[in-house]
Amino acid sequence: MTTISTDPVARTEILARIRRASTDITNPDPVTDVPVEWKYGTGIEMDDVVGTFVQKVTDYKATVVRVKAADVPKAIVEGLKATGAQRSAVVPVGLDKSWVEAIKGAGIDARADEPQLSKEELNGTDAVVTASAVGIADTGSIVLTHVEDQGRRAITLVPDRHVCVIKASQVVSDVPEAIQIVKPSVHDGHPLTFISGGSATSDIELARVDGVHGPRKLYVIVVDDQ
Amino acid sequence: MSTELRRVTYGNHGVARLTPAPDKPGPYMGMPKFSKAVKDELNLSVQRKNMRNATTTIRNKRALRVSESPDWDDLRDAAEAIKNRVGRHLDHYLVEAEKNLTANGVHVHWARDGEEANRIVAQIAKDKGADEVVKIKSITSQETDLNEYLEEQGIAAWETDLAELIVQLGHDRPSHIVVPAIHRNRAEVREIFLHEMKNYGRPAPEDISENPPELTNAARLHLREKFLRAKMAVSGGNFVLADTGSLVIVESEGNGRMCLTLPDTLVSIVGIEKVLPTFDDLEVFLKLLPRSATGERMNPYNSVWSGVTDGDGPQEQHVIFLDNGRTDVLADTLGREALRCIRCASCINICPVYERAGGHAYGSVYPGPIGAVLTPQLRGVDHPVDRGLPYACSLCGACNEVCPVKIPFTDILIKLRNKVVESEKSDKIPQDYEIAGEMGLMKTASWAFSDYKHFEAIQVGSRGMGRVLRGKKVGPVPVPVAQRWLKYRDVDAPPSDTFRTWWEKNREEKR
Hints:
Chain A: It holds the Pfam family LUD_dom. Chain A: Residues 53-223 form the LUD domain. Chain A is of the alpha/beta class. Chain A contains seven helices and twelve strands. In chain A, strand 10 and strand 11 form a beta hairpin. In chain B, the strands form three sheets. Chain B has a six-stranded parallel β-sheet, with helices on both faces. In chain B, strands 10-7-8-11 form a four-stranded mixed β-sheet. The longest helix of chain B is centred in the N-terminal third of the chain and has 23 residues, at 45-67.
């Protein structure tokens, strides 16, 4: 554990500076002092939420397929092969057993993250397969809450390919609805990762290049469960 | 880190260093003020071309994504109000954030200035026995000159954002807050990678081309070995959520996720103004920030973490709340509106002065309009660099229009100019020819407008000039002040007739 402790003098002094700088503010209640005219948690009108989601995710050059629930195991294997993950895939501890069996059945090494794989082992694994928490149609984003079927954060980051399964019923129109859905997870202490396409950069002449440090290929399986 | 990586780098007078030394002087280190620095920058024709291409691209992308968002102005109003709520009750929200961060297992520190923040980071690294740290792009840590401080303490700080890597390996300084290597083109990046990567880790392939995907892949491999061995990471923070004690990082490349996830210890330096009241408020800023910053509907990755999670990510976390002049900004009832800034850089990308001058001329980690309003407030106006910044602007007002949190840039700049003039006056002798020049111009204007006879006398002179030039552009003229001013400008000749004489003539004809 670190020995360094907080300097109480610095804290007191900064708070005193803030209070000196704010003497013009007479209403002590932040909420009535500055009302926020905004309706939180509101989605946007959309004819086809899932269709929009598929289109926006595809805009990020990710691959998106729509399948029936019974076909998910087969679609996962196809996704792994299509992205070039021939040898191995990390599977979170809570991943659907039938999905794991299908991966094994295809001759791909399904590596359970229990005990936790080392950074080097993750680096030497072709892909990761996870479920997800929420999809956002307007921005084409997928939110992970890193519960048991999604695994800890590192496993969806270090391998080069991510095959991600999302149910159509998990897709909402916009960011505000997603924020409300994942809020309980945050209160439970879970981290969140929002994924919008594969890792990308525009740092060289603002030309978008896909794949920097995160998975270079994102393969999304949308399950038509509605 | 192995000791063979310790080497003597260029540009630092033979002192052994762990990381590349920047060639250009940084803020406070002999940097000339904007009006002087800009002359050298304007002569860099490759940089000007790089800048024009890049800012045009990013402006168009932003405009397209904003046009897709029907409630854009409502979002801006909401963001403005939320940030005002924070600014006006900062002590309340900081104390709440501290309480909830601590409850989540985070060590919270407070730093009055940059030096204090740097000292805390170095102390944590030493306690952990870490002689290197990986860094997520953080403007706050550039503000405190953290990398140079850690270097002096024998700790190597590796930048992991691709643009920051280009800047660091290029012995350079960032010139933009979102795309720090905006002033470099692909050929320059190739040269830098080819010559420098081998000195600090995995070399770039000998036959590497200028192709951005190839260059990006070289960076991926070079940095991956650093990610896999790093024990400690340093980040900034886009937002701190007071009610849940969470931090938020918005990024593209995944280097942020690498730093937030793989090392055992994570230290985040965040400006005290980065607090948002609630987790719910995130919805407003996640809709505004990516569209404003990079013209994406959403950036590839957002990370939200609420302290230590068992078995997932760093098991020791620190947050340093940094003042470093922010409370001085807060004390000014108009100037404090600049504390709403969410560092999206849309003001920078639209600024005609920035596009031509580049970011280095501003002598601060904050270039463009936000730099011109923030830097002189954070550092005061005692130094010539900071006194010059409110004048690095044509007052065109484009920045006011694009700002997602509605910062009134031009109002603050005019107030700051006034402050600079007052401070020069109190020094008795104007030390600065621009400020003296503007004071002179204002006196002339005051004389001209005080009496209509004065005004007409000036018009006679102006009409004479118009007749001589007959519609030609005013080119370089052999008058000292005008000559300098006209060097980079084309100005229309004054009309040969004035409105007043035109009016009199037309009225006479009607009678």
